[in-house]
Amino acid sequence: MKTLKVIKIGGNIINNQDVLADFLNQFSKIESHKILVHGGGNLATTLAKEMNIEVKVVNGRRVTDRATLDIITMVYAGKINKTIIAQLQSQYCNAIGFTGADGNTIISKKRPVKDIDFGFVGDIESVNTEVLNLLLENQITPVFSAITHNAKGQLLNTNADTMASEIAIGFSKTYNVELYYCFEKNGVLKDIKEDNSVIEDINANTYKTLFETGIISEGMLPKLDNCFHAIKNEVKKVCIGKPEMLFNSNSKFTTIQA
Amino acid sequence: MKTLKVIKIGGNIINNQDVLADFLNQFSKIESHKILVHGGGNLATTLAKEMNIEVKVVNGRRVTDRATLDIITMVYAGKINKTIIAQLQSQYCNAIGFTGADGNTIISKKRPVKDIDFGFVGDIESVNTEVLNLLLENQITPVFSAITHNAKGQLLNTNADTMASEIAIGFSKTYNVELYYCFEKNGVLKDIKEDNSVIEDINANTYKTLFETGIISEGMLPKLDNCFHAIKNEVKKVCIGKPEMLFNSNSKFTTIQA
User: Fold this and answer.
1) Between chains, do B75 and A78 touch, taking CB under 8 Å as contact?
2) For B149-162, how does the pLDDT look when each residue is reduced to its tens digit (9 = 90+)?
3) The CATH number of the domain covering residues in A3-183
4) pTM for this prediction
5) Are B141 and B95 in contact (CB under 8 A)?
6) Which of B46, B92, B102, B139 is the best residue to mutate to test the A interface, defined by the most A CB atoms within 10 Å of its own CB?
7) ipTM score of the complex?
8) Is B102 on the interface with A (CB under 8 A)?
9) Displacement of CA A138 from its chain's centroid (Å)
């Protein structure tokens, strides 16, 4: 089977023009098939402030009301996605920007209202790989912003980490899929203040111990849940670390084991 | 040869949610291959005001500075394009949103500075039909917002009418291409105040006469130039009118003749 790298980048890369340009330059040189998934960085918050739109918070959780969804759509699918596409093209990496609505690639369901109404937030139901496969086979790289749709006309704000893992799983039967979560640290750390204290391998057992002893913080849990979800569903390799893990064989990072 | 309809819609359709929904509902039922090109409507102006960004005008001509380009990218490629894509999907029309940067489909050149520096405005140099063809052959409808790129990393604001005619010409060797400019009138009118005074056919000779006698106003000239450019370059059919011309065989509209 051919290798497909699904790579998620977060705010720390998107927020800095030079860092993003450097990342895209290296990303474009990856020879295997690849899919990029990006979040929004702090640009959405900045724009909301400029437009005097308040960030809605209920019980300490962010809520995506209609105005916020509009901003996310403009910033993620507009400004950030198209800036990335134009830069990749300048590096001879032929890319097309996607939301889950484009090509009907990712269908989600508006999160049901229990204690909190999260608004226009989508939980992924299915990934359709057909169109993406067609593009990959023609040397075109899909670049996803963190938006999906419900197939009934509604766009939905969707967690970028979850999108990356669901896309990876969607291709796991036809590709040798590797999933990379790029963020600001060298991986999962034993000591949060010490960037060299990388835990190089985590499996379901050590994960449990690390969590119970408080070494893994609350903030890392959703990301690690996505990692284990992927590795349990036939994704071959799941890694967390700085983008260097993709390009520099000497760099340290965390690998998730089944 | 198969038929390809290239359809451009303007602000009068985009600005009204119900009108847009109705149009997309009918558009999705068009059985031939089709490409949609849309401008931005007045949402970009509204957003610019909300963000206190002034519309820059030099010698009476709009200028696209960096802030304006950002707004256009957010509104055209983000909000409007993705709203259209989600609605088309809900009508079982599988569509993918494009700028000229996506798939490297439309390359343009920043307009050279003569009397006026128009800023980040692109004049189209080439249309690459390969990726679009691949999608059309797989029953996927490309939807373009009026943005292109220079292949060196720069997005450029581009006239939507011109994009539509250049896309139409790009496919004219492989498809029987029909180009439709949908706007708020029934076509080119003899009397601007009388919507039934449609001139049903215009050719290069009658165009000259109509212009010299002042029947065709300045505002229609760029649109008609795009029409004649297309018809001279093997586009089989070029029409101007209300969207009804596409769906209702009784409606009147203007057809451009070679």
Assistant:
1) yes
2) 999 999 999 999 99
3) 3.40.1160.10
4) 0.97
5) yes
6) B102
7) 0.96
8) yes
9) 23
